Amino acid sequence: MTTSSEIKSEQTTLEDLPSTDENGKAKFQVALDKVPETSRPLEARITVRLVESGGRAVEAQSTLPIVPTATMIGVKSCFSGRSLGEGEKANFDVVVASPDGNSSPQTRIAL
Asked: Is the pTM of this model over 0.70?
């Protein structure tokens, strides 16, 4: 499994992009061939750079989450701050989410 410090960004040149329509817009799909196996949430940052017919450079950017292919576990603390006092219980909400977006009911765990 890859840690977040080991994940490298990659750049790919897209070929055969469509021409813009009469409103100056174009649509195209981007596919990720290789996604690192990690327990961390990932996102794809897509940047499109082009030159208008008049010579002006244009750039548009979009950042999208990458849907995991495995079941994920989410844990959220139910206390404020970064620490607890001596003898206090640490409560957490836990949720299990499948890749299709379905999740199990939240479960509260006290430690």
From this structure: no
